[in-house]
Each structure stands twice: as structure tokens, then as C-alpha cells.
Write a structure and sequence with these properties.
Chain lengths: 671, 309
């Protein structure tokens, strides 16, 4: 029984694979047959629109839900995609014909036309070509708009994206030569497929919309369950920790903007082809908010959720509210109420959006279909089977799981004259530190002496004013944190910085980020190599978690926010180990642990050392330091006070004064 | 009208707009300084404020056809309208905080900001559905006094806007700097946790910040009506964004910064509209917003409250 997560039987039935597959199949069949059952063109058109909004919601979900970047100007990308198709298929922009256009004419991209006067070029970009092309163009704009916002805090980012969202329609309105200004583009071409012209019928658009949603959902699922998706979620949960665990924040934020924008660009093409007109008013702030409401209603980060949210709200607008209005009118006619006969509920849709936003935030922030299903808590007996494990890690398992590289000779880490200043405060003053390969070095010192700042400087989280930090013979000072991790330095944090809403397994998998290679394309296509890489990564993560025995193994699927303090410390160490470090930096790993747990962890650290891992540790508990360290470095007021073997340092005059104060030292002497 | 006159006129216009934006920006800054929350509801508290002012003016007998007032009657009507508008807007702000934001006080992430977007939408649509989409004529009790300066004209309404804004901003500065409650506000902005431990009722400080900020937005709504002679459900968004830009430009969380930012944005709008084209004014203003946030996120005068992490 121990270690088994108990799930209610009904839910197990609903979520079992055959039932899910059957349900999905049924849904697909119903959706495919819908136009034949329902002959009403307007209803089919409503569903085609719902598909467009669902696709937009999927795109915004990448940015807001996965990567946690609140974008309030998302409609801008929708607009750019729409205008790319609109301008290159309508009769708005028509340069003079010249030989330059001949090759394009052969490819079918342009036509030579004559409206009296000189020959002109008429763009005839194919719808099917426009979909990927617009996606590429908008992805570029996604990067362009995203780049200046990268360093901004979340709420500022929202405002800047809002600003861009406003600028794009204004530019469209103010450049009538290209966009026909406020009047909008007219005569946008309908798509054709094998000679069949879609014109203004609803059914073909419905099927294209359906295919688009299916494609984007597939891509969303694949991205979510990949190295890329995990990196986004790591950035969302804790940017600093993500970067310290090897995630290149800049790259993955821009990637989220680009992919989210690309989705919107493709939808813009679809939407405009269906409508055959585009005006700047179709892409304003209300549209951005509507898409946000859809994502919030469905559940940020939940692929099914945002699709359901988008379809519900879209149909609310086009089906339910008009129907309800009709009924009210009939009722009003029956009871003779003028007001009831005139009311139009569809006009209140934005009011409903506003109310929904507030209610969802107050009462159901995870949305209708939350991204993270709550896992059942462990049973009482499962929670309490653990005794203190003695003797450190299982050696065979640890060797397999950690893959510690053969220890190089010489000094692994050489810190020379490192100086860090915070405004007027000198946090570190020309500190030297040497960590020989295969050793355990402990840094001790009173609170505020600069220990954690030293770690932050080594791992690139705070810039150093001067000095040099060489790791395995190469300078790492000035490198961003994720590159330093990639070199083979991994750390834990004094105040525990885990990705709180992610599971233990995901946290440990993110630790492997720098050792994995899959990018977005491979994440979506998942070729055999990527499949194998992912499988190996999960195996390794499971092995590393298993090192901590029944402390972590039964909890591997639980979100780390539900773990005890000591277990969170263990997960952080597991996450750091997953990056296959040569040097492990532990910042007060036993803080908050009871004596038995402290002993357990100390022995585990010792067994890591025995496997050849080099360790730099900050620790307050001197018995732990004595037990583990080959060398102890004492910091006080940002300066190195002493260095030596634990027993030497313990007797050092200055160290005692720094720790206990002069009076205590004198009292000690007198005694 | 010579070119100099045109610029002089735009200077007058810009200062008037700027005074209005400054009033609005103060509300953003007060709330942001304490809660680190961008309050989108503020946009439409301003808009509702202008409708409250319109209602109050009607109540005092000021209608489009009524003759302009003078002397004591004018002063009483203006002060009365200002008081009613500020108190009503202030209470609206407090109600928003109590109902929609207080439950989210300790929730991490964008939940509170998304809520303020929702509240803003509700205010916007309640006014739209309740009072209609047409702009409403905003009657002015002011006599049509105008002082020609060269070819430019300085009207009484502009002078009034300057005076009211200056008095309100001076009063706010005095309040924040020299009263006990103001000191509590500044302390809370620095560190709510420490302020709470020192015996400051942080909850009351937050209510006060919403009340003051929203009351100033209401005053801004009245100024808007007097300046443009109309109001509409739609005025909150553009003015709100510009005022927010002003707050960021001056240094969000910083009271004098909000005033300075407001004046600068007002001048940019007036002068930029003159020099380039009014249809590009918003692009210029948003570009400034982006540039300031990227290159000098602390704004011109710097942020008073440190970044809490």
C-alpha cells in the first residue's frame, strides 16, 4: 500500500486511457459530422469562429499559461497575420509591373493586371502558403516586441505589451496606402483547394478551423511535455532558479513570444480569409482582453481548458445570448413588457467578460479545467513509513544515476580577489577561495558575512566588481548563470527556490535541462532520438529521486509545494545533482532539519564525496562541518578571516571572536 | 495666428492636459507604491468620476441652457461638484478594493491585476449599457472669460484646471509628507511587513490609498468634462493609459514624479500633435512608455519604494 497514490474509482475510470481515447474519437466524429447534421450555415459559421478563437487562446496560453508572461496586446499579432494575408491578396497595394515580378508570376504569387494605364502587379498569395508565412512574420514581430520587455517585471511587461497592442492598429489606421486605413481592406481572396473556391460558405472554413485547432492543440501538448515546456514553466515559477538550473531565460521567453505570436499570425490569415475584409478595429484592446478571458476561464496553462473556455465564450456570444434574447422577447410579448421585448443580451457580452474575470480570479483561479490536476495526498501510513536512513546513498544506484565525471586533478575552482559591492556596502572584499578537485570545502561565518553573496558571485547571480573565478581552468566570471551551470557547477539556495507548482519529477527533469538538447521543432515532431532522450531523462530523474528512498520516491508526482521543508531541501539537492555537476554548491542544506535528518543528509553528502563529487558547502552546524569538510573557510564582514582544517579553524582566535564576541572569548579564557 | 502663437496655445493646452493626467497618475502611483499593483480599474474610476460630476452639476442646476454663474454662486457650485465627485469616486475605489482586491492580497502572480482589468470592464460596460453610447454634453457653469495673449487665448477653464490641480497636489503632498497617516503610508510603501510590526494598520493605509487615488481621479474626471465639454463611457482608456505612462515616466510610486510625468505627457500630446499629427500622438506616447521602461525603469525622479522581491 505504501507509496500508492489513491485516486477515487470514478476518476480513475474517467481518466483511464481507453476511455479517454474513446471519448476523443467520439468528439472527433461528432465534430466532423456536424455540418451534415446541422444544415444551418450561420451555426456552422459560429463554430468556425469559435475555432478561430480557440486557436488564439491556444497561442496566448503558450505565452501566459506556459511561460507566465502576461501579454495584454496579443491581438496585435492576430492583426499582423491578418494584414499579411490581406495586403498580399487584395487590390490595395499594386506596384507597377516590371520584369522583376516575372518569376513571382510563374510561381503564382502575382498576376499582371491592367485597369487602364500601366500594367500593375496584383498579389495573389495562396492561403495555404500564407498560413506558415504569416506565422513566420508574426513570430519575428513576437521577438521584436518581446525583446525590450525581457528584463521587465511581470506587471510592467503587461503594460508594454498593451502599448504595442495599441500601436499596431493605430499604425494600420494611419497608413492607408497599405491598409486602406480605417475603412479597411476589401476584396481579400477566399482560399481555394484543388480548384475548389471556398467563397463565403461556412462549411469549408469550419473544417479548416477544426484542423487548425487540432494542429495547435497537438503542438501545445507536445511542447508542454518537453524540455521546452518545462523550461517555460521553470521561468514562470521562478526566473532566478530557472536560470541557475541552466535555462537561458532570454531565449525561452523570446521563444514563447515567437511561438505564441506565430499561432496568432496563422489564425489571422484564417480569420481574414473567412471574413474577406480587415479593419483596424477588429484587433483592439477588447480582442486582447477577450482572448485573455478565454484563457483565464479555461485555466491558464491547460490546453483542453483554454479550448473549452474559448468555445464556450464564443458560442455564448453567437448562440446562447441571442437565443436567450429571443426567448425574453417572446416572454416580453406574452406578458406585455416593453423592456423585455427590447433587451439585447448580446450587447452585454463584455460586461459578462468583466464579471467572469473577477469571479474566476476570486473563486477559481485555476480555471474550469486546471492545468495541474490535484494529486491525492499520501495515506497516513505511506507518509509515516520513513525511518531515518543511515549510511548515505546506495552506491550502485548513485553511480548509475549521477554519472559523476572522473575527477580531474588540480584545483577545480579558483576564486581570486573577488569583490562585490551593493551600493555603498562592501559585501565581499577581495576574497580568495580554492576548491581542489575531489574535496569538500566548507564556508562558515556569522550571518551577513557574505557567504551567500560568494555563492551568488560564483554562480553568476550577482556581478562581481573585480577579481577572477576560474572553474576547471577556465574563467567563468561574467558568464550568465545558465552557462555556468552548463560548465558543471550546480547549486542549492539557502531559502529553497523550487518550482513550487511543478511535481518533484518535473523539478528534477528541469535540473537536466542543460544536458538535454530538444528544441521546439523536435519537441513537436518528437523524432526517435528525442523520444529516447526524453525517456532516458525520466529514467535518470527517477533514479535520482530514488536515491532519497521513501522520503521522495512516493511523492514523485506531487507538486513540491505540498512537501515538508526537509523534503523540499532534498528535492533541491536532487535537482542540482540532475545537472551532472562536477562541483556542487550547497547553501545551508541542513537548515531547518532535526538532528536525525541532519545526520542522514550529512552522510548522504559524504557518500557523494566518496563518489568523487567536489563539494562547496555553507553550513552553520559546526558538527556537520567538522564531519564533512577537508578545508574550512571563515568569512566575516565580507573578508576571509581564516582558512584551514576544521580543527585548526575551531581554535582560531579571530574566528572565536567573530562568532562569540570579545566578551565571550574573555569569559572563555577566564574559565 | 503666428507660429509662436500656435506653440503658446499648445503650451496652454498641454499644461491643462498635463494637470489632468497628473491627477490621474497620482492614483496609479499611490496604489502601486503600496501594493505594487497596476490598477486598471483606475482608468474607468476616472470615467465614472466624470459622469458623477455631470450628475452633480445637473443637480446644482447647471444645464447646457442655463446662464453662466458668477461670484459666490459659481464658487459654491464648483466646490460642491468637486466635493461630491471626489467623495463618490473615492468610495467607488474603496469598494473595488474591498470587494475585488482584498481577497487576493496574498495571492502571487497576475491575479490581482487581471481582476482590475475585469473591474474596469464592468465599470465601462455598466456605463455603456446604462447610459448609452452617445457622448454626453458636459455643461459648464464658467463664464466665457478669455485672456488673449498675442494670438493665443487663455480661458478661465484652463486657469481653473491649473488652480484646482495645484491645490489638490499640494494638499496630497502635505498629507503624505506631514501627517501621521501620510507617514504610515510612506512606511507601508517601503516595507508593509515592517510597517505592520510597527503597529501600522496596513489595511487602513491601503483603503486610504485607494480612496485618495480614486478621489483625485474623480477630480480629473470633472476637469476632463470642463475642458472638453463632453464625457463618454470611452474616455477612460486613452486618458488612463496616458496617465499611467506619466506615472511611469516620473517614477512610479513617486508623488512628485507623477506630477512631473503628467505635465510632460500633456505637453508631448499637445506639441507632438502639433508637430507630427494628432493621429500619431498615442504612438509617440506609448513609444515613450516602452523606452522609459526599458532604459530607465525607475523613471525620471526614481522610484521611492524599493523593489520588493
Amino acid at each position: 500500500m505504501s507509496g500508492v497514490v489513491t485516486v477515487p474509482r470514478w476518476r480513475a475510470a474517467v481518466t483511464s486511457a481507453p476511455v479517454r481515447r474513446g471519448g476523443l474519437l467520439l468528439l472527433i466524429v461528432v465534430l466532423l459530422l456536424f455540418p451534415y447534421v446541422e444544415g444551418n450555415d450561420a451555426d456552422i459559421d459560429s463554430l468556425a469562429n469559435a475555432a478561430a478563437y480557440a486557436s488564439l487562446a491556444l497561442g496566448l496560453n503558450i505565452v501566459v499559461g506556459f511561460a507566465g508572461l502576461l501579454d495584454l496586446g496579443y491581438a496585435a499579432f492576430f492583426a499582423i497575420g491578418a494584414y499579411v494575408y490581406g495586403v498580399f491578396t487584395s487590390f490595395q497595394v499594386m506596384p507597377h509591373w516590371s520584369g522583376f515580378w516575372q518569376p513571382f508570376a510563374l510561381l503564382g504569387l502575382v498576376q499582371k493586371i491592367n485597369q487602364g494605364g500601366p500594367d500593375l502587379v496584383h498579389f495573389t498569395l495562396s492561403f495555404w502558403l500564407a498560413l506558415p508565412l504569416a506565422a513566420l512574420v508574426t513570430a519575428f514581430f513576437g521577438v521584436l516586441f518581446g525583446a525590450p520587455t525581457l528584463r521587465l517585471r511581470g506587471d510592467y511587461l503587461a503594460i508594454v505589451t498593451l502599448g504595442f497592442g495599441e500601436i499596431v492598429p493605430i499604425v494600420a489606421r494611419n497608413t492607408p496606402s497599405v491598409t486602406n486605413g480605417a475603412a479597411g481592406l476589401n476584396g481579400v481572396q477566399a482560399p481555394t483547394l484543388f480548384g475548389y473556391n471556398f467563397t463565403v460558405q461556412a462549411t469549408p472554413y469550419y473544417y479548416v478551423g477544426l484542423a487548425l485547432v487540432a494542429l495547435l492543440m497537438f503542438a501545445s501538448f507536445r511542447l508542454r511535455d518537453s524540455r521546452v515546456g518545462r523550461a517555460w514553466m521553470a521561468v514562470r515559477e521562478d526566473e532566478t532558479a530557472a536560470s541557475a538550473m541552466g535555462v537561458d531565460r532570454t531565449r525561452f521567453k523570446l521563444l514563447a513570444f515567437a511561438i505564441g505570436a506565430a499561432f496568432a499570425g496563422a489564425v489571422g490569415v484564417f480569420y481574414i480569409a473567412k471574413l474577406q475584409t480587415a479593419t483596424p478595429d477588429m484587433f483592439g484592446f477588447p480582442v486582447s482582453v477577450m482572448i485573455l478571458v478565454m484563457v483565464v476561464l479555461g485555466g491558464m496553462g491547460s490546453v483542453w481548458g483554454v479550448v473549452v473556455g474559448a468555445v464556450l465564450l464564443s458560442l455564448l456570444q453567437s448562440w446562447f445570448l441571442p437565443d436567450l434574447t429571443d426567448w425574453l422577447h417572446m416572454l416580453g410579448a406574452a406578458i406585455g413588457s416593453d423592456w423585455m421585448q427590447q433587451v439585447d443580451l448580446a450587447r452585454s457580452i463584455e460586461l459578462i467578460f468583466g464579471i467572469l474575470l473577477v469571479l474566476m480570479m476570486l473563486f477559481r483561479r485555476d480555471g474550469l479545467i486546471p492545468a495541474t490536476q490535484r494529486t491525492a495526498a499520501l495515506s497516513f501510513s505511506a507518509q509515516h513509513v520513513q525511518g531515518v536512513a543511515r549510511g548515505g546513498f546506495d552506491r550502485a544506484l548513485a553511480e548509475r544515476a549521477l554519472g559523476i565525471p572522473a575527477d580531474p586533478a588540480g584545483n577545480l575552482l579558483e576564486v581570486r580577489g573577488i569583490t562585490v559591492r551593493f551600493g555603498g556596502l562592501l559585501a565581499l572584499n577581495a576574497v580568495d577561495l580554492t576548491v581542489p578537485a575531489g574535496s569538500v570545502v566548507a564556508v562558515i561565518g556569522p550571518n551577513g558575512s557574505g557567504k551567500s553573496t560568494l555563492f551568488n558571485a560564483i554562480t553568476g547571480l550577482v556581478p562581481a566588481e573585480s577579481g577572477s573565478i576560474r572553474f576547471a581552468g577556465r574563467e567563468i566570471l561574467g558568464l550568465p548563470p545558465h552557462r555556468i551551470l552548463a560548465r558543471g557547477l550546480a547549486r542549492t539556495f539557502q531559502n529553497i527556490r523550487l518550482f513550487a507548482n511543478l511535481s518533484v519529477l518535473d523539478n528534477v527533469l528541469i535540473g537536466q535541462h542543460a544536458r538535454l538538447t530538444a528544441g521546439p521543432l523536435r519537441a513537436v515532431l518528437r523524432p526517435p532520438g528525442t523520444r529516447a532522450e526524453e525517456r532516458a531523462a525520466v529514467m535518470r530523474a527517477t533514479d535520482i529521486v530514488a536515491l532519497f528512498g521513501n522520503r521522495l520516491a512516493p511523492r514523485i508526482a506531487q507538486p513540491v509545494s505540498s512537501l515538508s521543508y526537509a523534503n523540499r531541501r532534498r528535492v533541491e539537492i536532487a535537482r542540482a545533482l540532475a545537472s551532472q555537476p562536477q562541483l556542487l554548491l550547497l547553501d545551508e542544506p541542513t537548515a531547518g532539519m532535526n538532528p536525525a535528518e541532519t545526520l542522514e543528509l550529512a552522510e548522504q553528502i559524504k557518500s557523494l564525496h566518496a563518489l568523487g563529487l567536489t563539494i562547496l558547502i555553507i553550513e552553520h552546524k559546526l558538527d556537520v562541518v567538522t564531519q564533512l569538510a577537508d578545508t574550512v573557510v571563515v568569512l566575516d564582514h565580507g573578508e576571509k578571516l581564516a582558512e584551514g582544517r576544521p580543527d585548526q579553524v575551531r581554535r582560531n582566535e579571530e574566528v572565536l571572536r567573530a562568532y562569540l564576541g570579545r566578551a565571550a572569548r574573555e569569559a572563555l579564557d577566564a574559565a | 495666428m503666428t507660429l509662436t502663437d500656435v506653440y503658446l496655445q499648445q503650451l496652454i493646452n498641454g499644461l491643462s492636459l498635463g494637470a489632468m493626467y497628473a491627477l490621474l497618475a497620482l492614483g496609479f502611483t499611490l496604489v502601486y507604491g503600496i501594493l505594487e499593483l497596476i490598477n486598471f480599474a483606475h482608468f474607468n474610476v476616472f470615467m465614472v468620476g466624470s459622469f458623477v460630476a455631470l450628475g452633480a452639476l445637473n443637480l446644482f442646476g447647471v444645464t447646457p441652457n442655463a446662464p453662466p454663474l458668477a461670484g459666490l454662486a459659481l464658487g459654491a457650485v464648483l466646490l460642491g461638484t468637486l466635493a461630491v465627485t471626489m467623495v463618490a469616486s473615492g468610495l467607488l475605489g474603496v469598494a473595488i478594493e474591498r470587494i475585488a482586491l482584498k481577497p487576493l492580497r496574498n495571492v502571487r502572480g497576475p491575479a490581482a491585476m487581471i481582476t482590475t482589468i475585469g473591474v474596469s470592464y464592468i465599470l465601462f460596460n455598466v456605463v455603456l449599457l446604462g447610459l448609452g453610447a452617445d457622448s454626453k454634453n458636459f455643461p459648464s457653469p464658467l463664464p466665457a472669460l478669455a485672456l488673449p495673449i498675442g494670438g493665443a487665448v487663455l480661458r478661465l477653464r484652463e486657469v481653473l484646471i491649473w488652480i484646482v490641480s495645484l491645490v489638490l497636489m499640494a494638499a496630497l503632498t502635505w498629507f503624505v509628507q506631514f501627517t501621521r497617516m501620510g507617514k504610515a503610508m510612506r512606511a507601508t510603501a517601503q516595507d508593509p511587513e515592517a510597517a505592520r510590526m510597527m503597529g501600522i494598520e496596513v489595511d487602513r493605509v491601503i483603503i486610504l490609498a485607494f480612496f485618495l487615488g480614486s478621489a483625485l481621479a474623480g477630480a480629473g474626471g470633472l476637469m476632463f468634462g470642463l475642458y472638453y465639454n463632453f464625457t463618454s463611457y470611452i474616455i477612460g482608456f486613452t486618458a488612463g493609459l496616458r496617465a499611467f505612462t506619466a506615472a511611469v515616466l516620473g517614477g512610479i510610486g513617486n508623488v512628485p514624479g507623477a506630477m512631473l510625468g503628467g505635465i510632460i505627457i500633456g505637453l508631448i500630446e499637445a506639441m507632438g500633435g502639433q508637430l507630427v499629427s494628432a493621429s500619431w500622438a498615442d504612438v509617440i506616447i506609448f513609444s515613450i512608455l516602452v523606452l522609459v521602461l526599458v532604459f530607465r525603469p525607475a523613471g525620471l525622479l526614481g522610484r521611492v519604494a524599493p523593489n520588493k522581491s
